[in-house]
Amino acid sequence: MTPKRSFEDLVAEAMAAPVEGWDFSWLDGRATEERPSWGYQRLMSRRLANVSAALDIHTGGGEVLAGVEKFPPTMAATESWPPNAALASRRLHPRGVVVIETRDEPPLPFADEAFDLVISRHPIAVWWTEIARLLRSGGTYFAQHPGPATVSELITQIVGPQPQLWALYEPAAQRAQAESAGMQIVDMRMERLRAEFYDIGAVIYFLRKLIWTVPDFTAKPYYVRLRELHEQIEANGSFVTHPTRVLVEARKP
């Protein structure tokens, strides 16, 4: 029988693990997460195959975009975290994608009405006015956003409830933000999913990787609460929480 690893050992391992890119293989056997039924990458690929110019905002390490079979003649991607931007460049440049490291705020370094399609998967913030500026008339924004109260059980355990922040991700709030920027919502749907963590190291890695969950997360300020959660997992075998995702398709008139 494999001996149980100490809290300190699990914390140290998870804090030392590299978190650049959008590869979650480190969590294999340590956590599971249900995926939305709509299949964002497949739907995104269909749209990319039928436009002349597209932009992926917050591409991460380019993993999702790299899974696309056919790119439009003009394909660009932006990323604000330098390690991810470097990873995305290495992955996407050979396929003709221009990857630009940007600040984590608008404006982006592109001309007005430069793109037929703007895409984004799990953006930290949605810059609706900037998206509207970049799209040509009749152009589309297609994205998968974090939803309201995503992994709320986990966030509550670590930092307490965040109702004001969660409200910003409500579909009605997202719709209002889009419409105020002059965009028309074509499709918006939400799913509540299930995630399960089998050790505290997996929780810490997840929080470091998904930076919108607990901004600027490091283990030290939350040591007491993380230890409490570790003890819960030891007693119950796992910790269950519920991610939410919102699929968004919006059109510029």
Automatic annotation (TrEMBL):
Signal peptide: none annotated. Residues 55-142 form the Methyltransferase type domain. It holds the Pfam family Methyltransf_11. Keywords: Methyltransferase, Transferase. It comes from the Bacteria. One of its GO terms (biological process) is methylation. The keyword Lipid biosynthesis does not apply. The keyword Protein biosynthesis does not apply. One of its GO terms (molecular function) is S-adenosylmethionine-dependent methyltransferase activity. InterPro entries: 23S_rRNA_MeTrnsfrase_RlmA (IPR052939), Methyltransf_11 (IPR013216), SAM-dependent_MTases_sf (IPR029063). PANTHER family: METHYLTRANSFERASE, METHYLTRANSFERASE TYPE 11 DOMAIN-CONTAINING PROTEIN. This is Methyltransferase type 11.
